[in-house]
């Protein structure tokens, strides 16, 4: 799907710098940045889900370990 992206001059310069430094096209840099952000979002969701299940199970133990 085609899309138009409007960047400030500063953001465009940053994108140019990243693309040059990585030897990639500007489009590839943006696609990789999107994939990275998406992965981090879903990793955080997975962590939240696991902690939501595990922490209540071990709450008593964790409270006893807390020196405060």
Amino- and carboxy-terminal Cα gap = 56 Å
For the secondary structure, the number of strands is 0
What class do helices, strands and sheet pairing give?
mainly alpha
Give the number of helices: 2
Shape verdict: elongated
The biggest sheet amounts to: none
Radius of gyration: 21 Å
Question: What is the helix fraction of residues, given as a range?
Answer: over 70%
Average pLDDT: 91
- Low-confidence segments, ≥5 residues, pLDDT <50? none
Helix and strand pattern: HH
Strand fraction band?
A: under 5%
Pick out its properties.
single chain, 2 helices, mainly alpha, 68 residues
Structural account:
This protein has two helices and no strands. By secondary structure, the protein is an all-alpha fold. Helix 1 (9-22) crosses helix 2. The longest helix has 40 residues, at 26-65.
Summarize the helices and strands and which ones pair or pack.
Blueprint: H1 9-22, H2 26-65
